[in-house]
């Protein structure tokens, strides 16, 4: 018999090689290659979508000949999730949901199952990690479920395929892809080959049967979905569920979406009865803001079309070290070092002998350039021990010359600040004309960091 061909796969990123290597060229990790049997092309093994022999090749069509179905999206009953998905679930799509263990992935999808079943949609929840009794215990905390929700504990992908074809649900949940196995692949469940081939089978089911399938994926210590990188390329949508284990809020972020924008986020709060939507994240993030304290300023960032107000905190104190300490939580440390250098060079603040600590309150992480002005004002406020008026917010990008550059959608940012009761906005002078459409709030346009620092002393 001919010897079976094998390939070496990186367990971290899925890089393929014909020989073993100590360091992966793709992700630069050491000792991650494992040898697994080579699996043939999935498209060569599988029949055509109709299950019949190949006949005449399909003919291409123009855009005008393609009929659009206006009912291709269905709502999940959760506005925050629909926002991230681009308006709802697209029928026949394959959605990957990743996140840290215990972050709430299964809870989120079980709540989606409850909402869809209440809307008389047939839903099949397939779990490879929990028993039926465990799922029921978790479901009883969330409320009543209808008979439209069907549960199955199975890991054999061929049995799952047969069940889906027989039941014909509208939505299928696979929890999780790392527990599924394909009998045609000899490697263990969770391996690179198993994850890739199992996802390929599920993708074929979703497209041929026009069934929406949600796949739960575990993440590595770096925070990316475990398994081959090609897994993210195969699916239609990739969602990451993020959150601080010590905080009650959770953020759902889309990093890939073939049917919508990837700039939107959904905010949830974990409660005893499940996940609750946070319709107004700005009020939620600003709870507990100190009054009359230096080094604290409210900044505005945009997540897609949604403005979010965040509290930026800074603490600047005399250093006893030869090399002062710089720490950043919730934002990029290199960006903080750059802004401190701009303050020292362009605004005359001697920060080289001071320790500096910058924090985005609430544990949320944001890197939008519009936060630059808020960080600069918080550092200057702490350095001079001058409190910024609590009814003042700031946003704008800061350049290396100390200039404050314009940012996108200033009108929406100012409108959100006014809605939450703020009275003064410090913003780039280039944005002032567009933001002036909002009445009843004071706008202070600044051209550089010196003018911004002078503005907080008014």
In short:
The chain starts with 5 loop residues before the first strand and ends with a helix. Strands 8-7-9-10-6-11-12-13-14 form a 9-stranded mixed β-sheet, sandwiched between helices. The chain has 13 helices and 23 strands.
Computed Rg: 26 Å
CATH architecture of the largest domain: 3-Layer(aba) Sandwich
Per the principal axes of the C-alpha atoms, what is the gross shape?
A: globular
CATH class of the largest domain: Alpha Beta
Main β-sheet, in a few words? 9 strands, mixed
- The number of helices is 13
Question: Any low-confidence stretches, pLDDT <50, length ≥5?
Answer: 41-52
SS elements, strand count: 23
Can you list the strand order of the major beta sheet? 8-7-9-10-6-11-12-13-14
- End-to-end separation: 86 Å
CATH topology call of the largest domain: Rossmann fold
Name the average pLDDT. 87
Strand content: 25-35%
Q: How many domains, as an integer?
A: 3
What does this structure look like?
- The chain has 458 residues and is an alpha/beta fold.
- It folds into three domains: 1-38; 72-279, Rossmann fold; 284-455, Ribosomal Protein S5, domain 2 (2-Layer Sandwich), CATH 3.30.230.
- It has helices spanning 42-45, 79-85, 105-118, 132-140, 157-167, 192-209, 230-234, 281-285, 333-346, 372-384, 410-419, 429-435, 449-455; strands spanning 6-10, 16-17, 33-37, 73-74, 89-90, 94-99, 123-127, 149-153, 171-175, 212-218, 237-242, 249-257, 265-271, 274-277, 296-303, 306-318, 326-329, 354-360, 392-394, 397-398, 404-405, 424-428, 442-446.
- The protein has a nine-stranded mixed β-sheet, with helices on both faces. Strands 17-18-16-15-19-22-23 form a seven-stranded mixed β-sheet.
- 40% of the residues are buried.
- Mean pLDDT is 87; it is low at 41-52.
């Amino acid at each position: 018999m001919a010897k079976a061909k094998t390939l070496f796969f990186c367990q971290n990123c899925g890089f393929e090689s014909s020989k073993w290597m100590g360091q992966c060229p793709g992700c630069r990790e050491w000792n991650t290659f494992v040898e697994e049997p080579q699996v043939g092309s999935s498209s060569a093994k599988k029949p055509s979508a109709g299950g019949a022999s190949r006949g005449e090749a399909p003919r291409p069509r123009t855009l005008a000949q393609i009929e659009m179905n206006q009912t291709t999206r269905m709502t999940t009953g959760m506005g925050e999730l629909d926002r991230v998905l681009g308006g709802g679930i697209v029928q026949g799509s394959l959605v990957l949901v990743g996140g840290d263990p215990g972050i709430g992935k299964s809870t989120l999808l079980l709540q989606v199952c409850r909402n869809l079943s209440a809307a008389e949609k047939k839903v099949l929840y397939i779990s490879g990690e929990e028993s039926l009794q465990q799922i029921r215990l978790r479901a009883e905390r969330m409320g009543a479920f209808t008979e439209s929700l069907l549960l199955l504990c199975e890991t054999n992908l061929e049995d799952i395929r047969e069940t889906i074809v027989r039941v014909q649900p509208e939505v299928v949940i696979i929890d999780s892809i790392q527990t599924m196995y394909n009998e045609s692949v000899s490697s263990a469940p969770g391996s690179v080959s198993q994850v890739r081939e199992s996802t390929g089978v599920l993708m074929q089911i979703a497209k041929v049967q026009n069934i929406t399938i949600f796949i739960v994926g575990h993440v590595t210590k770096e925070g990316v979905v475990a398994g081959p990188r090609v897994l993210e390329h195969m699916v239609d949508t990739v969602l990451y569920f993020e959150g601080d284990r010590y905080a009650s809020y959770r953020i759902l972020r889309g990093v890939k979406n073939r049917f919508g924008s990837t700039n939107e986020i959904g905010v949830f709060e974990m409660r005893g009865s499940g996940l609750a939507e946070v319709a107004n994240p700005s009020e939620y993030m600003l709870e507990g803001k100190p009054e009359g304290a230096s080094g604290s300023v409210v900044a505005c960032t945009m997540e897609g079309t949604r403005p979010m107000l965040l509290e930026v905190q800074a603490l600047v104190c005399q250093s006893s070290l030869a090399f002062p300490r710089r720490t950043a939580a919730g934002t990029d440390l290199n960006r903080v070092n750059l802004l401190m250098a701009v303050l020292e060079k362009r605004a005359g603040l001697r920060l080289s002998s001071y320790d500096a600590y910058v924090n985005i309150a609430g544990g949320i992480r944001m890197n939008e350039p519009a936060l630059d002005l808020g960080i600069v004002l918080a550092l200057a406020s702490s350095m001079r021990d001058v409190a910024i008026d609590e009814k003042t917010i700031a946003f704008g990008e800061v350049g290396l010359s100390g200039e404050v550059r314009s940012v996108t959608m200033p009108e929406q940012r100012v409108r959100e600040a006014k809605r939450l009761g703020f009275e003064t906005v410090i913003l780039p002078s280039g944005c002032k004309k567009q933001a002036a459409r909002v009445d009843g709030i004071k706008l202070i346009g600044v051209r550089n960091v010196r003018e911004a620092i002078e503005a907080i002393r008014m």
